[in-house]
Specification:
Layout: H1 3-25, E1 29-30, H2 32-40, E2 47-53, E3 65-66, E4 75-81, E5 86-91, E6 104-112, E7 117-126, E8 131-132, E9 135-136, E10 145-146
Parallel strand pairs: 1-2, 5-7
Antiparallel strand pairs: 2-4, 2-6, 3-4, 4-5, 6-7, 7-10, 8-9
GO molecular function, one term: heme binding
Pfam families: CcmE (PF03100)
Subcellular location: Membrane
């Protein structure tokens, strides 16, 4: 075998190893019920839950607790998943800036069965589309990722 063939096989083997290791770490999209079931079975891997913020009839967010003066790294809110289950979410980072404007919220983390809350490690926001009724909105679509 030529040296170039050996090097090519080595590169392929490394690429396959990287792909296999990232597939094992990939998280899945679930609802709060399935997240709770996974936690009960001892699976503490990070999962994605898609939902929206709980709002009252005037459109104000319900259940949001954030006091940057007292503790800027403590943010709590109530989220409703795609199956209409409500759950309290705790995020130990500052409140994302455009959270109030977002249409959908994706929280990445796991269920805390002792405290009956979802502990988020990351929050992804889906802001309003820049294409509403055929008009262009200059603010556009934006995803915000806040990591620990």
């Amino acid at each position: 075998m030529k040296k170039s063939h050996i090097i090519a096989l080595g590169v392929i083997a490394i690429a396959v190893g990287i792909i296999i290791s990232t597939v094992g770490d990939a998280s899945t999209y679930v609802g709060f019920s399935e997240a709770e079931d996974l936690a009960k079975n001892g699976n503490n891997k990070s999962i994605h839950v898609v939902g929206s913020l709980k709002k009252d009839t005037q459109g104000n967010i319900v259940g949001m607790i954030y006091d940057p003066v007292t503790d800027p790294n403590s943010f709590q809110f109530t989220m409703i998943d795609s199956l209409q289950r409500e759950e309290k979410v705790i995020y130990n980072q500052p409140k994302p800036q455009d959270l109030d404007k977002s249409e959908k919220v994706v929280v990445v983390g796991s269920m805390d069965l002792q405290n009956k809350v979802f502990r988020a490690e990351q929050i992804l926001l889906k802001c309003p589309s820049k294409y509403n009724n055929g008009e262009l909105n200059p603010e556009g679509e934006k995803a915000v990722s806040m990591q620990k």
